[in-house]
């Protein structure tokens, strides 16, 4: 590989434009040399704005270019597995947007392809939601402050009332989004960082708006819930309760409580962390120094992994498979009324 790493973009949505392109372009000896978007016209707009020299008619054409060393995949989840597997088979490193895929089977195929190509870097874009508190919370949980972990309660609730007239979004369509529900995968990935993964899942969910109008002003049926409640048993024996909703008007938004035998940790809607021991009268705000906080360096980590400087930690394919199994297990439990054991 030449010292000047050449990146190709497959899909150029908002996160690619706002984060990945600037992230790559600020790195030394890294060049974004091509883009394949939903059309040549939309790809040309991105290329002109960011100074990208080549526009491809489709992702297959981009992967066939032997001068490209690595790809950043920013399509909708239903295409992630197909493109990732083909990219790895084409000898290209892969940075794939989250969520990892549409289904657990898709994620398994991606993981298998990465293991068949161990000389190539395979990375999922991590959830940045909790970056600033991950180190602090993990330390409180794992360094003895709370004692034995007993339970974690996660709520991520929209603050608006139900909107029956909002147009159809691609995240409402299972054929594009797969088993992903609201921002469940984002929060579960954060939870894995703090307390580990789930061993079983039970869920109840509701579709409160059964159809929405698409771009053609035609109604499309919706099969992805807009409200879900989950109980999970963690591998370490603790219990988890998670709630996600887009129909909870006047809610307080996001909150997390982590309960231990000797202490409790609270995360509020502003990602402030409070904690208290058994001997304390209540919870107090915990200082979170900036220099101990994680921050967005996804593109840098990807490039460093390619160059052998550091391994991928946020997020390897194995962790992506964990949250894909969890999201699919939630739907299986909701649909069958049964507890679903993990791994699937």
CATH structural architecture of the largest domain: 2-Layer Sandwich
* Average pLDDT number: 96
Radius of gyration: 21 Å
Question: How far apart lie the N and C ends?
Answer: 38 Å
- Sheet having the most strands: 9 strands, mixed
> What is the CATH first-level class name of the largest domain?
Alpha Beta
Structural class: alpha/beta
Write down the secondary-structure element order: EHEHEHEHEHEHEHHEEEEEEEEEHHE
CATH superfamily of the largest domain, please? Answer: Dihydrodipicolinate Reductase, domain 2
Helix content: 25-40%
Strands of the widest sheet, in order across it, are 16-15-14-13-7-12-11-8-17
- Low-confidence parts: none
Which quaternary structure do these chains form? single chain
CATH fold-level name of the largest domain: Dihydrodipicolinate Reductase, domain 2
The general outline is: globular
Number of domains: 2
Number of helices: 10
Strand % is: 25-35%
Q: Secondary-structure map with pairings?
A:
Blueprint: E1 5-10, H1 14-25, E2 30-36, H2 40-50, E3 54-55, H3 59-63, E4 70-73, H4 80-89, E5 93-96, H5 104-116, E6 122-124, H6 131-142, E7 149-157, H7 174-177, H8 184-195, E8 198-206, E9 211-213, E10 219-221, E11 227-234, E12 239-245, E13 254-260, E14 263-267, E15 273-277, E16 284-285, H9 298-306, H10 317-336, E17 340-341
Parallel strand pairs: 1-2, 1-4, 2-3, 4-5, 5-6, 7-12
Antiparallel strand pairs: 7-13, 8-11, 8-17, 9-10, 11-12, 13-14, 14-15, 15-16
Helix pairs in contact: 4-5, 5-10, 6-8, 8-10
